UniProtKB/TrEMBL annotation:
UniProt record similarity statement: Belongs to the Maf family. YhdE subfamily.
Nuclease as UniProt keyword: no
Protein species of origin: Chryseobacterium cheonjiense
GO biological process: nucleotide metabolic process
Name the record gives this protein: dTTP/UTP pyrophosphatase
Top enzyme category: hydrolase
Length: 184
């Protein structure tokens, strides 16, 4: 089978490669808008399925993998920051609190589509404005939901507790991807 990864995320590419899969990266053009009636916990799966449905028809033997990660706190959706001020606002909101990270994956063949969501909880220690400034300027987290990457300095220095998969927080629930791809 030919595996197609529809993601430009370097983290997803790295994780899928480290799982031992050979794949081709493909691009999907689709407007990622979540309708208001979709609950926060369902939004990652919705976006993942939206991306998969925007892809061309799959040929026999092709498998498409799409994914989306959503950060939420108090039922508030935190996507990728629009700019530096938005990133600061998000990190201040997450400081000293527990939030949820939902990563939805869709695996599609010419015969079927499978969508799953994994959720993990992350508890941050207090983050000072100085630490926020440092992190944003050093790591430029503008391509990350919630304005942070768990594998970067902020994750190492400020995460007190995790409940769930580290890789789900990083952007790809590798245990689910592996299980579903093996079944296919």
């Amino acid at each position: 089978m030919k595996l197609l990864l529809a993601s430009q995320s370097p983290r997803r590419k790295e994780l899928l490669s480290n799982l031992g899969f050979t794949f081709e990266v493909v691009k999907i053009d689709c407007e990622e808008i979540v309708p208001e009636h979709i609950q926060v916990g369902e939004s990652a799966a919705y976006l993942s399925e939206l991306k998969a449905s925007a892809f061309r028809s799959l040929e026999e033997g092709e498998v498409l993998l799409t994914a989306d990660t959503v950060v939420a706190i108090d039922n508030q959706f935190l996507g990728k920051p629009e700019d530096e001020e938005d990133a600061k606002k998000m990190l201040r909101l997450l400081s000293g609190k527990t939030h949820q990270v939902y990563t939805g994956i869709t695996i599609k063949t010419s015969e079927k589509t499978i969508t799953e969501t994994d959720v993990a909880e992350v508890e941050f220690d207090d983050i000072t404005d100085q630490e926020i400034e440092y992190y944003i300027h050093q790591y430029q987290p503008f391509d990350k939901a919630g304005s942070y990457g768990i594998q970067e300095w902020l994750g190492m220095a400020k995460i007190k507790r995790l409940n769930g998969s580290f890789y789900t927080i990083m952007g790809l629930p590798t245990h689910l991807v592996y299980k579903i791809l093996r079944e296919i």
